[in-house]
Amino acid sequence: MPKIVDHDERRREVLTAASRVIVRDGIDAATTRAIAKEAGYSNGVLAHYFTDKDEILLSALRQSHQHIRERLARKVDAASGLAALRELLLDNLPLDAERTQETRLEVSFWSRSLASERLAEVQRAEAAELRSAVRDLLGQARAAGELTSDQSLDDLTEQFLALVDGLSLHLLLYPDRLRRADLERLLLRFVDQVITDISG
Hints:
The protein is mainly α. Helices cover 78% and strands 0% of the residues. It has nine helices and no strands. The protein has helices at 7-25, 32-39, 43-49, 53-75, 81-91, 97-115, 117-143, 153-173, 180-199. Helix 8 (153-173) runs antiparallel to helix 9. The radius of gyration is 19 Å and the shape is elongated. The termini are far apart. The mean pLDDT is 89.
């Protein structure tokens, strides 16, 4: 009797292997050969599921983002406004081993996206979803009376996203200067300061 192959599971295994290679060795080292070896498959298996290396990389990034979305949905299920915003922002910081790996994967794509329009388009589309979520939660907070000024929600959104990116990158680059607890403290203090400034 022929072996039944779960194609979706095999595809997920390849993408998970690709993510491990990127995080451990860097995105330039994530060749199809290296990914196939990490996954325990031949190059021919990868060719069966993906047209080229870029498709594997893009799919690995999307798989990571989907996992983040599912985790975040569980965290903010019963929250809204500023409470949900705090959860969303904290979830995007590398505050534990899992999120550190996700952040390293994300950052690995940034420089490559500058040289590849195909990767950049996906990066922008995925980032736009996060931006929309932050702005929507700020809008909820304003509607609920948690924000009382007319300050631009677009400006606030950009400030929060820049802070998350900056703190995340600094922790990865300067682990002797910052700790995970510092990131959480700095982010929450900034949120509180912004809310106080524009509500006071």
